[in-house]
Every structure is written in C-alpha cells, then in structure tokens.
Amino acid sequence: MTTSLPNNRPRREMKVLAMGLPRTGSASIAEALRILGYDGVYHGINALSSPADWTILSRACDATFPNLPTYTGKPFTKEDWEELYGPYEATTDVAAVFGRHLFEAYPDTKVILVIRDFDAWFRSIDEGVLSSLWGPMATVSVNVIGPILGSVAGPASRKMMLGLFRAQSVEECRRNAREAYDRHHRELREAVPEGQLLEYRMGEGWEPLCEFLGKPVPDTEFPWVNEAAALKKVVMDRVKSNATAALKKVAPWVVGAGAVAAGTWTWLKRT
Fold first, then answer.
1. CA–CA dist 93, 16 (Å, integer)
2. Lowest mean pLDDT among 72-81, 146-155, 223-232
3. In the predicted structure, residue 257 carries a pLDDT above the cut 60
4. Helices 95-105 and 51-64 sit at what angle, rounded to 10 degrees?
5. Distance, CA of 254 to CA of 271 (rounded, Å)
6. Which value, to the nearest 10 degrees, does the dihedral of the CA atoms of residues 18, 171, 235, 111 take?
7. 18 φ/ψ angles, rounded to the nearest 5 degrees
8. In a 3-state reduction of DSSP, which class is residue 116?
9. Which domains occur in the chain, in start order?
10. What is the strand order of the sheet 110-114 is part of?
11. Which of 52, 68, 107, 151 is 20–30 Å from 62 (CA)?
C-alpha cells in the first residue's frame, strides 16, 4: 500500500489472480484467500453493489472481445484495471472471464486455476447464469429498469458471457461452451510461467493452496460457500431495490400524465 485511489481507498498490490471460471467455487476460494490474510479480495458479488464497477467491466469487455458489436480494440491497460482492482490484493470470479488478458496486466501475480469437470460446470453456469441473464426478469431489467436508473449492470453482465463464449446470442453461448472451457484452460497454461500457476480442484483442502502461496495452513476447515444461493439472494435483493427506485423515479411523470389525461377527458366531456 503506497498510494491512494481518487476515492481515498488505499491502493494495494495485486498478488493473486484466482482464474477458475465462474461457478467453479470462486466464492469459496475468495473466502479462503481472506482467511489466509489477503487484504481485499474481489468477487463478482462486489460489483452488484457498485455501479461504477459495471462501467469499468463494460469497457474491459469492449476492449477485449472482438465478437462484441461494441468492440473498440483499444488495449485495456494495467492503469485501466487499477480503477477496479486498485484496492485489492486478490480477485476471483469475473476475473476469469478476461483470462490471459488480465494476467498480461499483472504478470507477477500467482494464478490459481480451479478446475471443475465440464459437464457439472456447464449445468451450473447454464442454469445459474445464462438462463438468468437472458430470462424474463433480466430482460425487463436490461430494457426498462436499467435505462431508467442509468445502470449498465445487465448489459455488462451479458457482454462478459458473450465475450467468454465468443458468441452473439445465449444460444450460441451454449453451443460454444466446450470450446470456451478448453480455450480458457489452454490459454492460461500457455501464458503463466511454471511456478506461478496452481491447478486446483475443490476438495483438495488447504495444503496445496497454502504451499503454493507460501502461507501457513490455518487451524480451521476450508470454507465452503453456497455461491448459487448467495448470488441468488443478492441478485433478488438488488432487483427489488432497483425496481423500487425505478418506480419512484417515474412516479411523478406517471402521476402528471394521469392528471393531464383526466383533465383532458373532463374538458372533452364539457365541450
């Protein structure tokens, strides 16, 4: 910690990139890293309460994924990433979407690649992420509530999935799943030097993780976080909050329009 960020949060040195794909136990890994003493561990759940984070992630998608119609081709530098990760020593979950591109910005970090069997992983990400992001509630949020509130969370989330799967639609995400899964692991194995990469499977416990990170084994059980349940609760709370905020924002216009309509109808009846 040597400098401060513009919002007065302390700037920290990124030390660990946990690059297991979303739905490979990233919330449990995040909690494990906190227990091991890392000062600031970023998980995608952080972004749900930080609108500014979604703007940064949206820009990162535009800079990273040529398949997106918003692709700029402008490199996303370490300085750009520091707007998001400056206060953190470790990151998980959404970091994996950017894979080797993020490692290129932080080439001195240690990388944890959590491996989950493809079939189990795909079922989880399809049911918990893809179906949610392109479901009816998400469509209302993206097309109606988001624009009212000026939020880019929904579009940015969709961009990340389309970018990860190199797809133009959710159906193509599903068709490309196996190729995206294999590419993610292959690119990180090729990009990260020997000694900086740990391939880890949930259930292996503290020992391989602590040996890799040079940390003593804690006198506590390895954490298990029900990521699906935690994320669902946070998302539902956020949806309800956003819907309420959107209604409050448009209520004066609705009331005003109703008053005008009522007045016009009364005048028409009289005349």
1. 12
2. 223-232
3. no
4. 70
5. 26
6. 0
7. -90, 105
8. coil
9. 16-270 (3.40.50.300)
10. 41-42, 90-91, 16-18, 110-114, 197-200
11. 107
